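As a warm-up, study this chain.
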Amino acid sequence: MDSEELLAQLADIHLPAEVSFWPPAPGWWILTALLFIAAGIAARKLYEKAEQRKACQYALTELENCLKRLGESTGQDKLLRYVNDVNTVLRRVALVKFPESNPGSLAGDSWVAFIRRTGDSSRLNDQLSAALSHGRFRTQIELDSQALHEMAHSWIYSVYQTDTSPSTELELTEGSRR
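Now compare it with the structure written out below.
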């Protein structure tokens, strides 16, 4: 037997089947699940941020409407109505952002202290503090309406821009009980 006959008797080499891409290995399933979870969390955060932005815009629009009603109204008590309207908008924002602190029950100096504690109150001077704390009980008031508007605008904006974590809300709740 010569070498060619021996080679002819050999069978061809059988290659293994090609590895398919389906089903993927368990690591790919885990990675896919983690990506879906991360995408869900990111979508939720974006949705919450959009809702916060929408709520902030709504509150600021209400504040602008208060200022517009002040310009359109006549009479001696128009400034008192404006102070009460602004106070109402501030309370609504406080009720939405800090429900655990029960801001609806606050009045007078504790209401002003709550405003100082929870947001940007750098523009809150003594005259504005007196107007917000006791304005609804007065018959006449002297006040710079533009300063009140700017203070309320900056407070609302700062409240919606800062994220209130549960620990911050707990501190606010404990602070309002003291």
